[in-house]
Amino acid sequence: MSMTLPTRTIGPFTVSAIGLGCMNLSHGYGVPPSEKEGARLLNHALDAGVSFLDTAALYGGGQNERLIGKAVMRRKAEFTLASKCVLDMFEGKRGLDGRPESIARTLDQALGRLNTDHIDLYYLHRLDKAVPIEESVGALVRAKEAGKIGAIGLSEMSAATIRRAHAVHPVAAVQTEYSPWVRNAEVAVLDACRDLGIGFVAFSPVARGMLAAAIATPDYADGDIRGTMPRFVEPYFSQNRRLIDRFNALAADARVTAAQLSLGWVLSRAPYIVPIPGTRSIAHLDEDLAAATHSFAPDILAAVDAIFTPGAVAGPRYSSAMQAQVDTELLPEELVLPA
C-alpha cells in the first residue's frame, strides 16, 4: 500500500510535493542499474507516496520509457506520468527536431514504449530554434485533442518563449534546472510561471549530487555527463568545493542531510514548485522524500542564500555546445562560455 506525501498542484494535476526524475535509471551517469534494480526503485517510490514520475524519449534512447512501461504502468492510477519530445536520438545521435511530424512520431513511439495510450503531461524537451514554437506547440495541441496527452509542458525555455507558447494553448508546466546552485530560473522564468499560473518543475534540485554530499573529487565514470559540465571539473571544481563545504556544514548544524536542505530550499521558494530529484538508491530516495515533511527555519534558508550569492558559483552550468540547445536565460556570469 502506498504512503502519502504532501501534495502540490501542477496544471490540472495534484502530485506529491516531491516527484521522481527517472533519467539516471537509464541515462547520463555512467553504467545504469539493471532493469530489475530500476523497477525496484520505481515501485518503492510509488509505495513511499511519490505520485509524479518524469521521463523522456531521450533517456537511454527510449530505454527509460520502456522501463517505466514494464515496471509500474500496471499501477498507473497511482501517479501522474510526464515525458518529453523534440530532444531525442536520431540515427544514433542526439539532436533536436521540433517539427510537428517529428513530434507526432516521437509521441507514438513513446506511447508504445510506455505501454499506454495516454501520457498525462508531455513536454517539448528543448526549443528547436529552426521551428517556430507555435508550430511545435500546435502539434501537442492536436495530440491533446486526440486524447494522446493530457497537458502541455515546456522544458528549459525562456520567459519570452513560454509566453509565446502559452498564447497558443495554456501551458501546464515548465521544467528547468533549479537549486541553490543553479538559479537561472530566477532571471525571468519563475515570474512568468507565477504570472501565467503555470506549475514549475525543478530538475536536478540537489545539483546532480553536488548538494547531496555525493561528489568529493571531480572523478567521474565514463559516460557521466558531469565530466563535461564546467562547474563539476577543474579549474572551477576546487573553487565551488569551498561553497559546498559551507553548505554541508550548514546542513549538519540544522540536523538534516545536505540533500534534504537543498530540497527544502527549493520547496520554500514558491508553492507552485515541485522538485524531481533522481537517484538509483532507495535509501537516498527515502532521504529525499523526508524533506517534504520537514520544517526548515527561515534563518537556515536565509543562510543557504548567503552561501550561494549571485556569482558565487564558479563557471557556467553547461559547455557552449550543450548551452546551444538551451533557451533558458543566462546569468550575468555565464555570458562568456568556455569552448
Quick recap:
One of its GO terms (cellular component) is cytoplasm. By secondary structure, the chain is of the alpha/beta class.
What are its keywords?
Aldo/keto reductase; alpha/beta; eight-stranded parallel sheet; 339 residues; NADP_OxRdtase_dom; 12 strands; NAD(P)_OxRdtase_dom_sf; Aldo-Keto_reductase; oxidoreductase activity
The CATH C-level class name: Alpha Beta
Helical residue percent band: 25-40%
Structural class: alpha/beta
CATH architecture: Alpha-Beta Barrel
Order of helices and strands: EEEHEHEEEHEHEHEHEHHEHHH
- DSSP E strands, number: 12
Oligomer: single chain
Mean pLDDT: 96
CATH fold-level assignment:
TIM Barrel
Largest sheet, spatial ordering of strands: 3-4-5-8-9-10-11-12
Q: Please, how many domains?
A: 1
Low-confidence stretches: none
Give the overall form. Answer: globular
Rounded radius of gyration (Å): 19 Å
The CATH homology group name? NADP-dependent oxidoreductase domain
For the record, give the distance between the C-alpha atoms at the N and C termini, rounded to a whole number.
Answer: 50 Å
Number of helices: 11
Report the major sheet: 8 strands, parallel
**What share of the residues does DSSP label as strand, in percent?**
15-25%
Description:
By secondary structure, the chain is of the alpha/beta class. It has eleven helices and twelve strands. It has a single domain, classed as TIM Barrel, CATH 3.20.20.100. Helix content is 36%, strand content 16%. The strands form three sheets. Strands 3-4-5-8-9-10-11-12 form an eight-stranded parallel sheet. A two-stranded antiparallel ribbon has the order 1-2. The model has no long low-confidence stretch (mean pLDDT 96). This is Aldo/keto reductase. GO terms for molecular function: oxidoreductase activity.
